[in-house]
Design goal:
about 190 residues; alpha/beta; five-stranded mixed β-sheet; four-stranded parallel β-sheet; elongated
Amino acid sequence: FQFRGKITADDYNLVLTPALDRALEEHDRIKALACLGDDFQGFSLGAAWEDTKEGLRHWDGFERLAVVTDVAWMRHGLPAIAVALPYPVRVFGNAESEEARRWLSEALGLIQVSRDADVVTVRLIGSLDAGAYAHAEDEIAAAFAGLDGVRLLLELSAFDGWAGLAALSRHLGLIRNHQRAIRRVA
């Protein structure tokens, strides 16, 4: 999305909201790129309210959000708000738009699962987003299948943490779903 001039509630209602709704009809979660260039003049009060409503309505609809801007209050304010969001948000300067696109397209982290007899090794690598857990859940269930008391080796040497609250929530859900099958953890 390109934000130009003064953004109003009508801009949200007529352009942004319908575009997000269409994208989320096709995909469970989306990656979004918001560019607020030199011609961006800010948000009206109505637009700020619509932005808040849209964020709450699509709370789990985003996989990642990249914001490209040199606007100082956006560059400093967004990271403070991002810690409360369930998806990773990263702010880039106007000269870094290609880096923002690359960040949206690359994997942030991954979960590797392997099994040797009754020992299951799970390696958490990089910064994990919720999508990494979606891919790993079936692998973990398959690795645990047929075992009476799993010995779990958790490898965290390359783990950089969770990229958003949704990833942490998926991690805790995975623990909840499999905790009874685990005999020991190292």
